């Protein structure tokens, strides 16, 4: 998720309350960054169940089934050996290695698919530039709102987050630069309006 607006909270309870209130007000593209798992946060964010188990299932079946099939082929048909009078295709002796290969294939592909789903490795992200965001790995709880969220409105959302107990609200990346540019343009205009007796040039009719 691309979090364009971040809000810092000091407690997990405040974060949970803010998520619930934002969802009630129509915000849908939300995310959270916390130093440890917060009970109930996944449900509050309405996150769907991970599809990782279903994605690694074919590799688990392929690893275990492929290993079993290879053993059965080599021992039963390609090069059968009569060892202790046991049949060439001895299923109990094939199970341990097949199980180990299933676990190995699941672990390796699970890590690779997890990295792909999370778009990792990502050495830099705009949220890393936000002052104080390092607290997300220590003792602070951050809430992120995606810029694509239709309910997100500059000024209104910031005021709402502040009213919900956010100790810090900040825009990220290009959104932050756009906000700074907008403020820089507004300040000279506001200053001119505040000067007593300032004359405004009127266009001839």
Automatic annotation (TrEMBL):
InterPro entries, sorted: ActD
Query: Pfam families of this UniProt entry?
Result: ActD
Q: Which UniProt keywords apply?
A: Membrane, Transmembrane, Transmembrane helix
Q: Where in this protein does the record put region Disordered? A: 179-205
Which ranges does the record mark as transmembrane?
52-74, 94-117
- Know the name of this protein? DUF3341 domain-containing protein
């Amino acid at each position: 998720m691309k979090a364009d607006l971040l809000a810092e909270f000091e407690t997990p309870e405040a974060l949970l309350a803010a998520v619930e209130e934002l969802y009630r007000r129509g915000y849908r593209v939300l995310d959270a960054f916390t130093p440890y798992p917060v009970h109930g946060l996944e449900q509050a964010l309405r996150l769907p169940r991970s599809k990782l188990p279903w994605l690694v299932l074919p590799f688990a079946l392929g690893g275990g089934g492929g290993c079993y099939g290879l053993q059965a082929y080599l021992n039963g048909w390609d090069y059968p050996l009569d060892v202790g009078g046991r049949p060439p295709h001895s299923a109990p002796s094939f199970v341990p290695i097949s199980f180990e290969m299933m676990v190995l294939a699941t672990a390796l592909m699970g890590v690779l698919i997890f990295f792909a789903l999370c778009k990792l490795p990502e050495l830099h992200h705009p949220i890393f530039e936000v002052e104080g965001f390092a607290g997300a790995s220590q003792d602070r709880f951050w809430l992120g709102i995606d810029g694509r969220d239709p309910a997100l409105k500059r000024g209104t959302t910031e005021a709402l987050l502040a009213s919900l107990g956010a100790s810090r609200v900040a825009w990220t990346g290009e959104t932050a630069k756009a906000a700074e540019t907008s403020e820089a343009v507004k300040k000279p205009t506001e200053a001119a309006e505040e000067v007593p007796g300032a004359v405004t040039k009127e266009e001839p009719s």
